[in-house]
Write a structure and sequence with these properties.
This protein has about 280 residues and is α/β, with parallel strands linked by helices. The chain has two domains: about 190 residues, Rossmann fold (3-Layer(aba) Sandwich), CATH 3.40.50.150; about 70 residues, rRNA adenine dimethylase, C-terminal domain (Helicase, Ruva Protein, domain 3), CATH 1.10.8. Helices cover about 35% and strands about 20% of the residues. β3, α3 and β4 form a beta-alpha-beta unit.
Length: about 280
């Protein structure tokens, strides 16, 4: 039988195990899981959150990459009828495979490994249509980037894509001492609610004509050299007058643009692609 005491955190998995009971209680109360809900925990570790989630959720799936943790979790929770373990990389996991019917939505929870947090968030946002909300423990710096406003030093591609698709809120800070081993940085709990789940979700003045991947591409190019202007960073994909047609001064820097303005630039880029396809 696996024992939580015998398992040491592994650096290659970015493991830092949460153990502070006050922090755990704060997270559980923030999630407020109900018996008719389907929860998915990413990176359950030794089960510090799992043991609380399993008593509240109607169904709980956990995704754990470290195969040595699987028997530990099975020993603790396999007696629960609505509990399942998936020993797989969350970056490669098909979250839609967990749905039992077309109207079901997933609630995601997790203490995400810092070394894959940003690509994992992008992967999860691709599944926003089947997700009710997400509560994640992340490096504080990553959460600050997610929730950053235009004009701030932390505003960038992650801010734009997350806030286009979700309402993002930093709930509270978690000190290093809440983990074993203690990381060298502070952590934070973020709540992400896909906008299609919100009653007042239409806070965007400009509708995206392309895909979130198109928006992410434009944001990446616009921020490719942060101190340079849009005119310089976007010159290979948008002409100066096309940027101006979007109502945007091409002499501005990317960090000054609102999400609506990034959507407008993306729409112009998509239109260019469509026109080039017509002329081929």
């Amino acid at each position: 039988m696996g024992s939580p005491l015998n398992h040491k955190a592994r650096k290659r998995f970015g493991q830092n195990f949460l153990h502070d009971p006050n922090v755990i209680e704060h997270i559980i109360s923030s999630i407020a899981a109900k018996s008719d809900q389907h929860l998915v925990e990413i990176g359950p570790g030794k089960g510090a959150l799992t043991e609380h989630l399993i008593t509240h959720a109607g169904k709980l799936d956990v995704i754990e990459l470290d195969r040595d943790l699987v028997p530990i979790l099975e020993d603790q929770f396999s007696g629960h009828e609505h509990f399942s373990i998936h020993n797989i990389d969350a970056l490669k996991f098909d979250f839609s495979s967990l749905l039992e019917n077309s109207s079901e939505k997933l609630r995601l929870v997790g203490n995400l490994p810092y070394n894959i947090s940003t690509p994992l968030i992008f992967h999860l946002l691709e599944n926003a249509s089947i997700i009710e909300d997400m509560h994640f423990m992340l490096q504080k710096e990553v959460v600050e980037r997610m929730t950053a406003a235009p004009g701030s030093k932390t505003y960038g591609r992650l801010s734009i894509l997350v806030q286009y698709l979700c309402r993002a809120e930093l709930l509270f800070i978690v000190p290093p001492g809440a983990f074993d081993p203690a990381p060298k940085v502070e952590s934070a709990i973020v709540q992400l609610t896909p906008k299609n789940q919100l009653a007042s979700s239409n806070d965007m003045k400009v509708q995206l004509n392309g895909t979130p991947a198109d928006l992410a591409f434009i944001a990446r190019e616009a921020f490719s050299q942060r101190r340079k202007t849009l005119r310089n960073n976007l010159k290979k994909i948008l002409r100066n007058e096309q940027i101006t047609q979007c109502g945007i001064d091409s002499g501005r820097r990317a960090e000054t643009l609102s999400i609506d303005e990034f959507v407008a630039l993306t729409n112009q880029y998509v239109l260019n692609l469509e026109n080039s396809n017509l002329t081929e």
